[in-house]
Specification:
InterPro entries: Cell_wall_metabolism_enzyme, Csd3_N2, Dup_hybrid_motif, M23ase_b-sheet_dom. By secondary structure, the protein is of the alpha+beta class. The protein contains seven helices and 25 strands.
């Protein structure tokens, strides 16, 4: 029995020796054989990185040559801090503390957040001591924490290209679905909806209505990371073309029709970005919680919990607290005539309290179901001269039209814009989109 056990031990040892030798020959770590975390030989396409020499034996990442190092990519876990990440790569707490002190004025390590990507470059030895930790707070910036003897921290920014694009399409179902299928984004839909909100009922568009947009796209390393300004648009509704011509009179881009009249009003049309109305202003509505008929002097918007709520105009917060009926709510006084209120929030936005000044479009809270509510939604209320009115029906003053001194410049921009829009053929754009494979099928309208 003893001889058999001894022979088995020799066989296992010999097999292990062969496996390790083969692993070294094939250029991967023996630790891989036992399920340890594998260091990748080259970065994946999971997030944006500056990578040079992709075809060579060792790429250059973030401007750092990796010929003597291994590359490990990861994502910060919930509750994870820098010292925990680096402890796995032979970096002691004292070194992390000294690094954190140097990083305070550049990019504080306490700002490292869950869900963001990082990369570690470590020595090719058994200790696997980290030499660099690179963290990406967003798609434009990356922070290089140099863990070598000098300990250095640098914040870098990638070059952002701004490219002008056009999209066009027809309404087949909702505005959201039709615009995303045409190659747009939810952000573009929201911008478009805000511009046309006072001229069109966006919940009652007709099949066959059409749209054309000229907008800016932000690109880094060939990948789209977001959108800039919507420069101009036109919407054809029931045979009538309504233009939104972007023009800056010195205070930022505003939108005007063909006559130079502003499409903007004193307030945003709705306190949520393009969404669905679930219950309208009514003098007699059956209350789903109280089970009786009563006046509903507000407009309900269905939206997922946590959706940002924006104030529809500049003003001062006159109330921000909790009541059993309203839940968490914010009330904003805009001027002597108009006041608005936002009910059933899950929480307030940072800095929102009584006396705080807010700007049009600023996030003041988030959708919830606090108070008398059966599910997550926003109840939006509107006062005019001290009396509650239908926010969607009230007539509000328009913003100023194009000034006389800028009329000549505007007319030139208008003519150029209209010519460009008329040159866009919707059918051709759709065919090009299909050919490129960039048409999108939204999963959630």
């Amino acid at each position: 029995m003893l001889k058999r056990s001894k022979g088995l031990a020799i066989l296992i040892a010999l097999s292990l020796f062969i496996c390790i030798t083969a692993a070294q020959t094939l250029d991967f770590s023996p630790a891989d054989l036992f399920g340890a975390k594998r260091a990748e030989a080259a970065p994946s396409a999971g997030f944006l990185k500056d990578v040079e020499g992709k075809k060579g034996p060792a790429p250059v990442v973030y401007g750092i040559a990796t010929d003597s190092m291994e590359i490990v990519e990861g994502v910060v876990e919930r509750g994870e801090v820098l010292s925990q990440i680096l402890a796995q790569y032979n970096i002691d707490p004292t070194t992390v503390y000294n690094l954190a002190q140097k990083a305070k004025e550049i990019y504080n390590v306490r700002r490292i957040a869950a869900g963001r990507n990082y990369m570690i470059l470590h020595n090719r030895d058994s200790a696997q001591t980290a030499r660099y930790f690179i963290y990406e707070p967003n798609q434009v910036e990356y922070v290089i924490y140099d863990l070598r003897d000098s300990l250095a921290v640098t914040l870098n920014k990638r070059k952002v290209e701004v490219i002008e694009r056009t999209i066009a399409g027809e309404i087949n179902s909702s505005l959201y679905v039709s615009m995303v299928e045409a190659g747009g984004s939810p952000q573009l839909v929201n911008s478009f909806a805000d511009i046309f909100a006072w001229r069109l009922d966006l919940n009652r568009l007709q099949p066959g209505d059409s749209f054309k947009l000229i907008y800016e796209e932000k690109v880094v390393n060939g990948a789209t990371i977001g959108f800039g300004e919507l420069k101009s648009a036109v919407f054809e509704h029931e045979g009538e073309e309504i233009y939104a011509i972007g023009f800056d009179e010195g205070s930022g881009l505003n939108y005007y029709d063909q006559k130079g009249q502003s499409l903007k009003r004193a307030f945003l049309k709705e306190p949520l970005e393009y969404t669905r109305i679930s219950s309208r202003f009514s003098k007699r509505r059956f209350h789903p919680v109280q089970k009786r008929y009563k006046a509903h002097l507000g407009t309900d918007f269905a939206a997922p919990r946590g959706t940002p709520i924006r104030t529809v105009g500049d003003g001062v917060v006159v109330a921000a607290h909790y009541t059993s009926g309203n839940g968490y709510f914010v009330k904003v006084r805009h001027n002597d005539t108009y006041t608005t209120q936002y009910l059933h929030m899950s929480k307030f936005a940072k800095g929102i309290r009584k006396g705080a000044r807010v700007k049009m479009g600023q996030t003041i809270g988030y959708v919830g179901s606090t108070g008398l509510a059966t599910g997550p939604h926003l109840c939006y209320r509107f006062w005019k001269n001290g009396r509650q009115v239908d926010a969607l029906g009230v007539k509000l003053p328009a913003a100023n039209p194009i000034s006389k001194k800028n009329r000549g410049k505007f007319d030139m921009v208008k003519e150029e814009t209209m010519q460009r829009m008329q040159a866009i053929d919707i059918k051709s754009v759709k065919q090009e989109l299909l050919a490129s494979g960039k048409d999108k099928k939204p999963t959630d309208a």
